[in-house]
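Q: what does this look like with magnesium ion bound?
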Amino acid sequence: MKIHEYQAKELFRKYDVPVPQGQVAFSREEALNVADLLGGYPVVVKAQIHAGGRGKGGGVKLAPSRQEAGNIADEILGMTLVTHQTGPEGRLVQKLLVEAGQDIAKELYLSMLVDRETAKVVIMASREGGMDIEEVAANTPEKIIKIYVDPLMGIQNYQLGELGFGLAIPKPARKQFAGLVRQLYTLFVANDCSLVEINPLILTADDQVLALDAKVDIDSNAMFRHKDLLEYRDLDEEDPQEVEASKFNLNYVNLDGNVGNIVNGAGLAMATMDIIKLAGAEPANFMDVGGGASADQVENALRIILMDEKVKAVLINIFGGILRCDIFAEGVVQAAKKTGINIPVVVRMEGTNVDEGKKILADSGLDLTSAVDLKDAAAKIAAAI
Ligand code: ADP
Ligand code: MG
């Protein structure tokens, strides 16, 4: 689950990770109220969307006066912000973070993420922080320091020393820097994060270390034990079909192609996407209705897939185990009658009660193409497209 910068900074404050003073604002008026509270200029007005690269896209601006702060708030609120992370369609900005402008001496980079290869949290850091970090990673990867934290031992002092040395943290700031890294690691583990990124982490002219930007992703699979973090979820930032699917416990991911897929089981879903690509078609989505789906869930799955205008044909690939084929077929018929499918549908079904399932489909009067196996199904869907 992604959260906004202002929420990530709220979390940082709870863990004593230093951040600039600031607050979220939903209108020009609120933005000015926050600016007044900060008690001095410049202030920085920052678009809050679930994507980075805002600075380069015109979503982060320094306001030297109250007048300018109002103008900038007007300009950014309601804009469709396009950055290298939003894709060409951009994101509508509905909230701002207004914070105290900082006197930046140096912009550094610091992040933590889960490294699957070593099964450890890796800390990545660079002296070359700021808005061009992607280029640093691509062209001069040696400028990125990596420290692997043993989950049993936690961060060791020598590792903090290595980081401080690598980032050339000046002596008066070292203790504060070490504390910040320790606190950030505590936050990462306690909240089941998959990513925490501070870019830039700044050194001020008077040797303070401060998180100027904050990106936090929380492992969605761990949300059940972080009910307090659920309030940070922002449905405006999520794909509407994915939100709808999550209400019915369907594993749904929107993709770029035009073949809608309904499959039971993640492994089968992956195999289905592979084989239809091999046959020359492109998946429009990944939809796993799960092992024990009910007829209602199947109905919702089909309804959600048909909401997507890119979908020009649907492939239903079911291996009946816990989900029996007859239950599944009932769901398909129910959904088809309610939504009125007017695009080709190919069905491949195998497993428990397959004959009953096939009979339900055949008797339904629906115009479905049946396939004998996965390869046949892929060829038929590619032909239909
Ligand atoms: P993004 O990563 O989405 O571009 P950032 O929060 O990193 O957004 O902001 C972009 C740049 O704006 C930073 O690299 C920094 O130079 C400047 N900036 C951001 N917040 C402040 C602030 N509070 N004071 C001064 N400059 C800031
Ligand atoms: Mg940034």
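The longest helix spans residues 171-190. The chain has three domains: 1-20+103-235, 21-101, 239-384.
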